[in-house]
């Protein structure tokens, strides 16, 4: 029996469910993923047999594909949040941060690690705050 994972965007317009299992969970540090997330890496779950159902807001989901590449990104046109995509190869790709419940698997690997941001190395060495700074 497949697990069902619910998710949504930041503004709540788009809600979805993904059923199926996650075969891989990659943290991709490539320049495209850094650009499209604005962060150090993308964090995407890959399901080879998953099904993606939009619960609400499917008319606000837009998918951008970088021309002549397989790099694709779905997002909410209201708030810009990353959303799942159904890829041409049949995989459902789910941004881990878009899920509302616990992520059921640990990351598989950092990928494109040679392309990581110049500020990325040794992040575990910097101070950690439990809340916002200045509180
Ligand atoms: Zn939204
Ligand atoms: Zn990437």
Automatic annotation (TrEMBL):
Q: In its UniProt entry, what is this protein called?
A: GFA family protein
Q: Write the record's keywords in alphabetical order, separated by commas.
A: Lyase, Metal-binding, Zinc
In its keyword annotation, does this UniProt entry include Ribonucleoprotein?
no
Q: Which PANTHER family match?
A: CENP-V_GFA DOMAIN-CONTAINING PROTEIN-RELATED, GFA DOMAIN-CONTAINING PROTEIN
Taxonomic lineage: Bacteria, Pseudomonadati, Pseudomonadota, Alphaproteobacteria, Hyphomicrobiales
Q: A Pfam family in this protein?
A: GFA
SUPFAM superfamilies linked to this entry: Mss4-like (SSF51316)
Which is one GO molecular function term here?
Answer: metal ion binding
Keyword Ion transport in the entry? The reply is: no
Q: Which residue ranges does the record assign to the CENP-V/GFA domain? A: 5-120
InterPro entries this protein is in?
CENP-V/GFA, Mss4-like_sf
- Family classification: Belongs to the Gfa family.
